[in-house]
From TrEMBL:
It holds the Pfam family Jagunal. GO terms for cellular component: endoplasmic reticulum membrane. GO terms for biological process: endoplasmic reticulum organization; granulocyte colony-stimulating factor signaling pathway; vesicle-mediated transport. It comes from Crocuta crocuta (Spotted hyena). Its main location: endoplasmic reticulum. This is Protein jagunal homolog 1. It is a multi-pass membrane protein. Keywords: Endoplasmic reticulum, Membrane, Transmembrane, Transmembrane helix. Belongs to the jagunal family. It is found in: Endoplasmic reticulum membrane. InterPro entries: Jagunal. It comes from the Eukaryota.
Length: 154
């Protein structure tokens, strides 16, 4: 249980870094702190992805007292607030990625790089982080459930 909690915490911290970078990018885009040539306006999937911090917080809240309910809520909300926006984002950005691949033309930029390329990289990293979070959370849930059942038998 302790090892699984440690692994999940590491993944939550990585997710927090991704989330903060996304918030910074969106803030710069909306507040027009830099020109649109430097930082493109956010894609639509980025807005609901901002809620992805909720499952991570629920996961952290479940750790001190091994709260199964919070961990289950964290896993369910991770599907809704993390995985679903990422799937939508991959579909939303696909035409721009296809345009870039076929014709070499990009219309949105992020500090001189194609925004769709950078955001797909972020998307792939986020999917991996959330998939590992779900995997370790499921293992932790099984561990807690088993220990709870053993306590009830005694």
């Amino acid at each position: 249980s302790v090892t699984l909690k440690y692994e999940i915490k590491k993944l939550i911290y990585v997710h927090l870094v991704i989330w903060l970078l996304l918030v910074a990018k969106m803030s710069v885009g909306h507040l027009r702190l830099l020109s649109h040539d430097q930082v493109a306006m956010p894609y639509q999937w980025e807005y609901p992805y901002l809620l992805s911090i909720v499952p991570s917080l629920l996961g952290l809240l479940s750790f001190p007292r091994n709260n199964i309910s919070y961990l289950v809520l964290s896993m369910i909300s991770m599907g809704l607030f993390s995985i679903a926006p990422l799937i939508y984002g991959s579909m939303e950005m696909f035409p721009a990625a296809q345009q870039l691949y076929r014709h070499g033309k990009a219309y949105r930029f992020l500090f001189g790089f194609s925004a769709v390329s950078v955001m797909y990289l972020v998307l792939v990293l986020a999917v991996q982080v959330h998939a590992w979070q779900l995997y370790y959370s499921k293992k932790l849930l099984d561990s807690w459930f088993t220990s709870t059942q053993e306590k009830k038998r005694k």
